[in-house]
Write a structure and sequence with these properties.
alpha/beta; Metallo-beta-lactamase, Chain A; six-stranded mixed β-sheet; 5 helices; 22% helix; globular; metal ion binding; hydrolase activity
Length: 203
């Protein structure tokens, strides 16, 4: 599975948007990088689908541009005027050449999902490897009124329950791509989230 972070060139705040090539060339999240369409075209001429982990602005600001440029189908858990396919917990969606299970993981966002294949985890913002708050296992913010640390903790636990031991790559919404013992990283993120302490001092 070839995975490219097509938002690497961004100078403004954005999530990581991942282009996954294969039988179903897929963009996981669209990001907020105005150059994302050109970045995608550096690798492929066609894009089959966009799969959203959730619809916070840093994940969808350039969604319309991507859909218009490639006439791609949109997969999302939450309602969206351009959604072609509604995702639900337990669904299977092909990302590149890999079948991924959709795991509903709210807490950071009500419409948040993660994607789990036999070898990779696309975790969105529910849990990340490093994000400036913690290294080697962190978790999504839950300080906004519509967010919940308790739900996030439940989501990370559910994710661990459905995470195959064979997963060795983690593609999170922020921070760096991680390759190695993904389960250990997610477990450390859970331990930190369970403390119920503010993620950032200003929370």
């Amino acid at each position: 599975m070839a995975v490219y972070t097509v938002t690497d060139g961004a100078e403004t705040f954005t999530c990581n948007a991942y282009l996954v090539t294969g039988e179903q060339t897929t963009l996981v999240d669209a990001g907020a990088y105005v150059g994302v369409v050109d970045a995608i075209r550096d690798h492929v001429d066609e894009l089959d689908r966009v799969v959203l982990t959730h619809q916070h602005g840093d994940h969808v600001a350039e969604l319309a541009s991507v859909l218009d440029a490639f006439d791609a189908e949109l997969y999302a858990y939450g309602d969206h005027p351009r959604r072609d396919h509604a995702l639900a917990d337990g669904d299977t969606v092909t990302v590149g050449d890999h079948d991924c299970t959709v795991v509903y993981t709210p807490g950071h966002a009500d419409d948040h999902v993660s994607l789990v294949s036999e070898t990779a985890l696309f975790s969105g913002d529910v849990v990340v490897h490093d994000d400036g708050a913690f290294d080697d296992g962190s978790f999504g913010r839950t300080d906004a009124p519509d967010q919940s640390r308790d739900r996030l903790v439940e989501s990370i636990r559910a994710l661990l329950d459905r995470l195959p031991e064979s997963v060795t790559a983690m593609y999170a919404g922020h921070g760096s791509v991680f390759e190695g013992d993904v389960r250990a990283v997610v477990e450390r993120g859970l331990e930190r989230a369970e403390r119920r302490e503010p993620k950032y001092p200003e929370e």
